[in-house]
Each structure stands twice: as C-alpha cells, then as structure tokens.
Design goal:
191 residues; mainly alpha; Arc Repressor Mutant, subunit A; 2 domains; elongated
C-alpha cells in the first residue's frame, strides 16, 4: 500500500470513529455530514470524496466494527473448534458480549434498523461459516438445521436486544448464565 492509499484509508477510519463517537451522543437520523467532518477533522469535500451519502458511511462503519470485532477476538480458527461449546460456552459468549457492551450504541442501532446493516447477509454468513458445520458435527438432520438455527439465534438475539434496551446494565456473567441455562436445558430435551 502506498502512502496515498494509506492516507485515504486513515481518513476513512477517522470518519468511522467520528460516527461512532457521535452515535454515543445522538440518534443516527440527527447526525449531519458537518458534524462527522468536524469530529473527524476533515473537510466536507473529503467526506464526499469517500461517500455519496451518510448511509454509505454507516455501512462502512458497520464493516469497520465487524472487522475490529473479528481481529480482536479471532475465536474460531478451524472447523475442529466448532463444537457444542461454541453455542453455549463462556469462552465464546464473554468476548462477544463484552464487545457488544463496548459498542452498544452501534449494536442498538443494528437491532433497531436491521435493513441498514444487511442483517440477512450477516445471518446467512453466520449460518454457513459456523452453525451449519456445528449442527453437522452434532449430527442434526439436514431438514431440522434451519429451525434449530432460527431458534438459537432468535433466542440469543432477543436476550441481547433486551440487554441493550437495559443499556447493558446487567453483568455479563448474568447474561451468559441466562443463555447457557436456556441452551443447555434445550440440549437436554433433545437427548
């Protein structure tokens, strides 16, 4: 990467960070390009060099947060690690919930406006990259996989959404306990 490319990407990261900072203070709908530029320390023309509209910045910021999440955690490296533990264990839930708590404003926005973030694509990737493999390892019948995936993800998403509505005030251990107990009780019912 040459110096010019590096400067371009650094400027984009400043605007991503600016959006995240502003989301801590106000709702997305009320954030202006002017505020983004002031917070990022860039000119308005620089914003339009990178984006056509605010939704473009929002989409990039979601990718930025996702990449930050993936690079920070690296919780799943191989197919061999995809076991029942991935679905219920503290080892995987704690870093996930900690990251959500640290970035709660953006996650709240993702739950409130899933259409802005292409949640369906994220869900499909989650299924393909993790759950399909895990459910195969559990010897779940092919025709049952999509239902089990929906049950698990909607349940966990519901718990996290409620936790976000409560401003993540409950301790992470408490939330992990709820997820583990409910997932484990359902596993026992399937044995």
């Amino acid at each position: 990467m040459n110096k010019q490319d590096s400067k371009y990407f650094n400027t984009a990261s400043y605007m991503d960070e600016a959006l995240l900072v502003l989301l801590e203070k106000k709702d997305y709908e009320f954030i202006t390009v002017k505020e983004i530029c002031q917070t990022a320390g860039v000119n308005r023309s620089t914003f339009y060099l990178h984006y056509e509209k605010m939704d473009d910045l929002l989409e990039e910021t979601i990718n930025y947060v996702s990449n930050k999440f993936n690079s920070k955690l690296k919780i799943i490296d191989t197919d061999a690690e995809i076991t029942k533990e991935i679905l219920t264990s503290d080892k995987y839930l704690r870093p996930y919930l900690s990251f959500i708590k640290e970035n709660k404003k953006i996650y709240r926005l993702m739950h409130d406006k899933p259409y802005l973030f292409h949640i369906d694509k994220i869900t499909n990737r989650l299924y393909k990259d993790i759950f399909d493999i895990a459910l195969t390892n559990f010897k779940v019948k092919e025709e049952e996989k999509k239902y089990i995936f929906s049950f698990y993800t909607e349940g966990v998403i519901g718990i996290i959404k409620r936790w976000l509505e409560e401003d993540c005030n409950d301790e992470i251990d408490f939330i992990i306990g709820i997820i583990e107990r409910n997932t484990l009780s359902n596993e026992k019912n399937h044995k």
